[in-house]
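User: Please predict the structure of the protein below. I'd like the answer in structure-token form so I can feed it into my own downstream comparison script.

Assistant: Understood. Taking the following sequence of 52 residues as input:
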Amino acid sequence: MEETLVTTICVYAVMLVYVLLQRTLVAAAAEAGGLGPVAVAVAIVGLVWRCT
């Protein structure tokens, strides 16, 4: 039961981070020449991998 709860919390946390960062993806891409979204994607994948 605890593992399921932790997984659920991680999923919600990743979703929340994505929603918060979604607004800045365009600006990050413009400033970093398209590297911004890649860095964000890598960070999200890292969070998911750490939670599983």
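That's the full token string. The chain has one domain: 2-51.
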